[in-house]
Amino acid sequence: MTLQQIHYALTIEENGSMNKASEKLFIVQPTLTSAIRELENEIGFPVFHRTHKGITVTPEGKEFLHDLRILYQHYDMLRSKYEDVSNYKRKFGVSTQHYTFAVKAFIETVKQYDMNRFDFAIRETQTKDVIDDVGSMRSEVGVMYISSANERLLKKKLNEQGLEFQPLVECSAHVYMLKGHPLAGEKSLSMERLKDYPSISFEQEEEEFYYAEEILSENTYPQMVRVNDRSTMLNLMEGLNGYTLCSGVIFGDLNGGDYVLIPFSSADGPKNSRMTIGYITKKNVVLSHVGEKYIEELKRILLKDVAA
Question: What is the full DSSP assignment across the chain?
Answer without folding.
Answer: --HHHHHHHHHHHHHT-HHHHHHHHTS-HHHHHHHHHHHHHHHTS-SEEEETTEEEE-HHHHHHHHHHHHHHHHHHHHHHHH---TTPPEEEEEEESS-HHHHHHHHHHHTTS-GGGEEEEEEE--HHHHHHHHHTTSSSEEEEEEETTTHHHHHHHHHHTTEEEEEEEEEE-EEEEETTSTTTT-S-B-HHHHTTS-EEEE--SS--GGG-SSTTTTSPPSSEEEESSHHHHHHHHHHH--BEEE-S---HHHH-SSEEEEEB--TT-GGGGEEEEEEEEETT-PPPHHHHHHHHHHHHHHHHHHH-
